[in-house]
Amino acid sequence: MQSYIKTKVLNLYQPTDGYCYNSDTHFLYNFITQCLEQFKNIKGDILDIGSGSGVLGLLVAREYEKLNLHQIEIQNSFQFLTQKNSEINGINNHLHKGDILEYKFEKQFDFIVSNPPFYNSDVIKSENQNIKIARYNDNLPIDKFLQKVDKLLKPSGKFLFCYDVKQINGIISAIDGTKLNLEAMQFLHPKASKEASLVMIYLRRNSKSKLKVLPPLIMFDDDHKFTNIVNNIYEKCATNSIKCEIEI
């Protein structure tokens, strides 16, 4: 069983009333580190799309200190939280405010990561506008999203993200017409006997490598307790949430 050296706790302010990061982000971060193990010197510019409270980008930047972190967020309250959490954890970032589909960047990126809004628009939605924007893909369709990412990546740039597993056909279709190649996938299952609920995906620009499917990640054992690997992931992430009221 793999164990992790105790790392610095990442303190994260979260809204009392609104969308908060969840375990998907922890599992995606772990997937990112697995996929990047093959590279010896991780450096360059990384963009965290839809940063929310900043957690994914901050986790990756804490892990790879040579990365220059950029984050983009459309909601004012989360722009505030991204910047606040960057400051209290001593991790430098460049915050871009706006819609990823419309925003004009002055550079391309070596890495892009994202836990995007991926629930389909036909799912019953929350009445909270903050949660609607953060969870549902009405404003960020997967085809337009991947086309934008394709343009933002450097020639051999890497994109790692997670999505609703039920929409995997749409993801594969959206990859066609871009220069992105599907390099690796991992499926998350609530239990070994249950269907997958989440897929984590690694795309690389201008690559011809064959697809690698990583062993499935199982969240709970038969006793409804976290599996050892999930406990290890939480230990590796070392995050601490702090609820706060936000008025922007």
Mean pLDDT: 90
Rough shape? Answer: globular
Number of domains: 1
Rg, please?
17 Å
| Distance linking N and C termini | 45 Å
Helix content: 25-40%
Describe the 3D structure:
By secondary structure, this protein is an alpha/beta fold. It has a single domain, classed as 3-Layer(aba) Sandwich (Rossmann fold), CATH 3.40.50.150. The protein is built from seven helices and eleven strands. The protein has helices at 23-35, 55-63, 76-88, 129-135, 142-152, 168-175, 228-237; strands spanning 10-15, 44-49, 67-73, 94-97, 109-114, 153-164, 180-191, 198-205, 212-213, 217-220, 239-244. Strands 2, 3, 4, 5, 6, 7, 8, 9 and 10 form a nine-stranded mixed β-sheet that branches. Strand 7 (180-191) and strand 8 form a beta hairpin. The longest helix is centred in the first third of the chain and has 13 residues, at 23-35. The N and C termini lie far apart (45 Å).
Features:
248 residues, alpha/beta, Rossmann fold, 9-stranded mixed beta sheet, two-stranded parallel sheet, 7 helices, 29% helix, globular, disordered N terminus
Task: Give a short overview.
This protein is α/β, with parallel strands linked by helices.
Annotate the secondary structure layout:
Layout: E1 10-15, H1 23-35, E2 44-49, H2 55-63, E3 67-73, H3 76-88, E4 94-97, E5 109-114, H4 129-135, H5 142-152, E6 153-164, H6 168-175, E7 180-191, E8 198-205, E9 212-213, E10 217-220, H7 228-237, E11 239-244
Parallel strand pairs: 1-11, 2-3, 2-5, 3-4, 5-6, 7-9, 7-10
Antiparallel strand pairs: 6-8, 7-8
Helix pairs in contact: 1-2, 1-7, 5-6
